[in-house]
Amino acid sequence: MLEPALLPTPLLDCTDEVLARAGVELRLKRDDLLHPTVPGNKWRKLGPNLAAALEQGHTRLLTFGGAYSTHLRAVAVAAGALGLESVGLVRGEELAGRPRNWSLRAAEAAGMELVFLSRSAYRETAARCAADAAVAAELQRRWGPCLVLPEGGSNALAAIGAAAIPGELPDLGERDVVCCPVGTGGTLAGVAAGLPPGARALGVAVLRGGEGYLEGEVAGLHRAAYGREFGNWRIDHGHHGGGYGRVPAELAAFAERFERRHGVALERRYVAKLLAGLYAGVQAGAFPAGTRLTAVVTGLPDPDPDRGQGLGPAA
Ligand SMILES: *Cc1c(COP(=O)(O)O)cnc(C)c1O
Hints:
By secondary structure, this protein is of the alpha/beta class. 40% of the residues lie in helices and 17% in strands. The protein has twelve helices and ten strands. Helix 2 (40-55) crosses helix 7 (156-162). The protein binds pyridoxal-5'-phosphate. Keywords: Pyridoxal phosphate. It comes from Kitasatospora aburaviensis. Belongs to the ACC deaminase/D-cysteine desulfhydrase family.
């Protein structure tokens, strides 16, 4: 299997005046330290899927992603580590003829074959492969027998993988709220399903306009993985920062303050939005005194040499 760097991942207590004034505790569940190249929730979600692929005798994984998809890189690395082939269908046919960005380069370096699709072809295939048997069959015809993982990697097995997170948190109860960012909802579905009675899960949506849709995705994953729905979770839609991938100046400033204060580098598109959303909630009195928040740090900041951020060109 794909060995974790560190499991269970550490828990880090955060203290500051904002939290103290509200009587709220905050801990970070450091899933960002889980694996260097298959980070955090991607490792959690892929684990049971990789086990199923091997068990079913698959030699190839196929999945979908955008030009900077962490999921795509994670699948490429995981497949390579297990001796499986991988195919990545990438959104944007215009990328085919251009020099690869750092993210696609990393996926290719790990052995993934990249295929570039027009936006409409991508939408048709990525959105429908799970629900539409004809689309799934066409993929198998074109690429041979392969395990198809949905965009973002969120399926029933992924939720079951993420359900291990609360299992690593001792003595959860009535005062606990376990929190994570929501992209496709697989991580939140798992966190909610893995909680003991009394504890609750809170997701912070990182995309705009997901009201209703994301709740439907999480409930669908619960039905697919557990045969029932759960009533112990909700999604905050007020802290997406303007949309997926958008990092407004205010959010960037929050992240820099948090990093200085707590010494943890924050991934901006998901983790910073989660924490900014939680702090806003604390300041607005959304959590009664005595609440213990546990924020799942789902991933690492991008090592983005193309833009001169992260680890920089030397990395
Ligand atoms: C992919 C990703 C997410 C999104 O998780 P979902 O299960 O799709 O909701 C959250 N955080 C980080 C750091 C990610 O890379």
